[in-house]
Amino acid sequence: MISEALKKSLTERVAGAITPREAAVDVMKELQAHYGWLTDEAVAEAASLLGLSPLQVEELATFYEMIYRRPVGKKVIHVCDSISCWCADCDGIIEHLKKRLGVELGGTTADGMYTLLPCACMGRCGDSPAMSVGGTPYGHLTPHLVDEILEKERRA
Amino acid sequence: MDLPLFRHNRRDRSVAFKEYRSEGGFEALKRAITGMTPAEVQQTVIDSGLRGRGGAGFPTGKKWSFVPRDLPGPRWIICNCDEMEPGTYKDRVLLEHNPYSLIEGMTLACYALGVRHGFIFIRKGYEQAAENLARAIDEAKKEGFLGERILGSEHSIDIDLHLSAGRYICGEETALINALEGKRPNPRQKPPFPAVKGLWAGPTVVNNVETLANIPGILARGAAWFKGLAMNPEGAGSKLFCVSGSVKDRACVELPIGIPLGDIIDGPCGGMRLGKRFKACIPGGASTQFLTAEHLKVPMDYDPVAKVGSRLGSGGIIVFDQDHCLVEATLNLITFFARESCGWCTPCREGLPYVREILTRIETGYGKEDDIAILREHIKYLNYSFCALAPGAMAPLDGLLRHFEDEVREHIVKKKCPLKK
Questions:
Q1: pLDDT given for residue B389 in this prediction
Q2: Exposure of B244 by Cβ count < 10 A (0-12 exposed, 13-18 middle, 19+ buried)?
Q3: Residue A51's closest chain B neighbor by CA?
Q4: Is A121 marked as a binding-site residue?
């Protein structure tokens, strides 16, 4: 269930759009921020707010990289494996992350803190290898720096 | 040389509105709104020779001219800031340093085309750029350069931001239009082209960030000045090159269009990293063909790069050295495209994973001689896909087989990657 305040702000966002479904991505993102991931309940709520069927929301939700239709950890780590990061040994960084977190790609740490996902190019090729943690971008990664970031983000 | 796009840059922060103004910012808009007709603005852009900086390089003024003048109802301009092509990060750098050129350029474009409402479509992950743009829009509105009755004229122009949720296909102009409308971002059938029937079925122009950010300079200093910036006679303007890979200083730099490839690598990028030799590069983002050492003197402009079988694309130069296996590099690129295919059409949905499988086999020592012919067939067949994603994906593969077939065959003969110990 979402709060009345959130419902009101989302209703206003939809009403301010040129057509209701123009606001679909914003609504999904807000609901995801509320629930931690886009739950079935959130899909139904988004559909009702946007005047779409749940299936129409589903086909959007499953399309986008940053919408999660499964539970994720408190912070999602998106680690870039595209060509510029490959040149900068992102494979080594990914192996280090897997080992350090004790998960495979797609997995969530036992404490529910982190989910590790590969991602398409982050547009940080000049700072490669790069990743983002909970939406904060980091570049010039080394195994040592990765450890520091994980520790810092865990405390933040 | 006074290059227009980065001239307002501060070293490690965004330029302030006041600074942009004091350095001549928004003067072009002022001059256009108060003293030029929309047709004159459009003609200046045509005369400047500006070509779209998103990758395709289509002449901007010509693209604008496809918008019918007499169709009733609203028309739209969308700024494409999706920028998810691997190796490409120029639009982010530009917007993190200076969002005002885009706002001014986009307002000028809206004025030229009689557009009341523009959208900036920004990819997920570019939150800093989005924040800068939101601030710039507010400031421009407060100062009367945007919003109702710009500078007291009868022209009203609004710009809205649309923050996406991340998919490479959203950079394709018709998929982007679907995304903005809140539909699943599959590409649309063309024709009708967006210039006639685009966003909400209205005439729509989609331009890249760098393209629009060039407009204020062109209007302020004239088409001839813009043409004169280029290093090659047929070129026009400057270009943002964003370099990554095996160079000393990976940087996003503004340089005259037509500068030789080698001069970019050896100049602002400081040459190759210690102990590394140039082997090849991808000159314009992931969907362009490899260039080799024999191409280092090629002028970096649309036609000269096309002449040697590649594309200037986005200007995202990815540099490889002697220790990089180009089969593995191509496999990485194909993996990206296979993952990012929207699945709308069969050649792309089925073809890319198959190409990925064959390249994986070759890279891991299980390739057969026949695989090379199968790959060549796919380069041909994947051209029949619905949009340009699959042909784009085939470009590096085509380059690999054209310039490095020996390296591919060595994998097959030795039954292993020759560069792996």
A1: 96
A2: buried
A3: B182
A4: yes
